Amino acid sequence: MNLKPDAKKAGKENFAEAVGVNRRDFLKGVIAAGAVSGGGLGAMYFGYSKVENPVRIGVIGTGDEGSVLIGALNPDYVQVVAISDIRPYNVHRAFHGDHSSDAAYSARRGLMNVYGWKTEEEARQHVKVYEDYHDLLADDSIEGVICATPLFMHHPVVMDSLNAGKHVLTEKLMAHNIAQCKEMGRTANDAGLHLATGHQRHYSVLYDNAVNLLQWGLLGEVHHIRAQWHRGNLPGRDSWCQPLPGGEYNIKEGKVVDTILNRMNSFKNAAEKGKGGDPAELAKNWAMYEQYKAWNEDRNVNAQNYGYNDFELADGRKVSAMEELCRWRLWDRTGGGLMAELGSHQLDAASIFISALRKQKDGKKVHPLTVHATGGRHTFPYDRDADDHVYCMFEFPGPGYDADEVGYYDPYRNYPAPKEGVPSYQQDPNKKVVVTYSSINGNGFGGYGEVVMGSKGTLVLETEKEVMLYKNGAGPTSNVKVAKDKDGGPTMDTQASGAPTQAANIASAATSGPVSRGYTEEIEHWAYCIRNPAPENKPKCHPEVAMGDAVIALTARLAIQRSIAGKGGFVQFKPEWFDLNSDATPEADLA
């Protein structure tokens, strides 16, 4: 993130020198053995195994994110027997994949591709299609449900699924508010069902690699994490503002413009004119025609029958239920804005890193102490509730902040462990890790990623694809490698060099094959836990963890709203907000 091109290039050419048996050695060995994708790598790396028979599941919500999860499925672990969506466009993509670009098809390759079915007719012999998700839940043969609906529908869909006896993997954010999260978590725990939430970084080998480096103490005392997700979206070209089926009034042209219908016809014309030409181009045009044809059929959906509303903005513009359905991320009632959609992932990553520093290895997640946040609609007109710029600063307790966490990876102290019943002079309330986060529109410089800064070095994670390691203060003309210190532990050795080769590339596609973002692994492990019921087998992002992520994201969102309203954007987190069995919530306390 924000690295000079020559530094990136140099880093890729000068990989870290491996020490002993570490994550990178493991990855190289796995790839050399041919286990480079799917359940092979995930199972070997995270310690689960293949299931004897795939879990029969249904997918509720097959839009953008639902189709990504479908594309990540491993047939050895799950068998999709039903899907549910109210939009013909989403049903079409669920079967055929998204042909709008090579990148889109790579992520959303469709059920036919995943399971090897040649035609949609053949696929429908295996997969039932429902408009009303309650009909899907009535199928007793379905054991688990993937929920990838708009955020405001997570709670009702998950609760109905749990009450129907189904295990659930729901997309992030866990729910629209913390009271809903707590009800979902308690219901799942009481019923003995697995409820997982799709914060996929918990299953990213790349991020676990970074955690390993932190636990080695390679960065020294971690004191700051900087995260960002910057996008170039602007009015008129906003990825969250998709065209509406049936068209909408265009101010510039002074008339109703039906973008979807126009594109459908243009692809049909291109396909008809291209007969006898390039077969690949012809196939692409027909595929896009069929995709837009299905999208055009969305105009027949009565969105009001499925919980979407007509309403009016402050400037008098009327918003239809169809617009609320298609652009649900823009509204407070249906979505959670930048903090829920983007910030929740990266604050989850930050808390994973900080939790890795804990002396107590009990799996507990470190929770923030405070947040100071602001933001607003700085670029877009009043066509949404969601802010287009958010800026947050969190304080987390670091090693040494609490008495029972003192002395862990602290290079500046060599105090004895605190004795029982004796106050420890090592406890220091100043030992905090500050996390800054920004998500903006209108300028995509730097993209998205995280920078972890310690007293010995800096770790840069870029777009969930690679990890770069820098010697602290080494400058752009230093060559960094991982070596052994005098005690046999890992350290970074800096050598003078005339070329800008300061970055040690710890994990990337170059060193470890295609980097999985963790979607496949989170679904595999969820299925493994279902097939292997035992107290120790539970998804990494179980209700307590997922609710913690929701508290962080939604409290920051409340702080931003308070700042905009002139009430101040500073909020102190309360421990009971993170307690699944407490009824306390930030929404109630900050009302």
TrEMBL record:
Listed PROSITE patterns: TAT
Gene3D superfamilies per record: Dihydrodipicolinate Reductase, domain 2, NAD(P)-binding Rossmann-like Domain
GO MF annotations in UniProt: nucleotide binding; oxidoreductase activity
Coiled coil segments of this chain: none
Enzyme Commission numbers on file: 1.-.-.-
Cited InterPro entries: Gfo/Idh/MocA-like_OxRdtase_N, Gfo/Idh/MocA_oxidrdct_glycsds, NAD(P)-bd_dom_sf, TAT_signal, TAT_signal_bac_arc
EC class (word): oxidoreductase
Region entry Disordered, spans: 480-500
SUPFAM superfamilies recorded: Glyceraldehyde-3-phosphate dehydrogenase-like, C-terminal domain, NAD(P)-binding Rossmann-fold domains
Alphabetical UniProt keywords: Oxidoreductase
Ranges where the Gfo/Idh/MocA-like oxidoreductase N-terminal domain occurs: 55-199
NCBIfam families for this protein: TAT_signal_seq
PANTHER family referenced in this protein's UniProt entry, alphabetically: BCDNA.GH03377 (PTHR43818), NADH-DEPENDENT DEHYDROGENASE-RELATED (PTHR43818:SF12)
Protein name: Putative oxidoreductase YdgJ
Gene name of the encoded protein: ydgJ_2
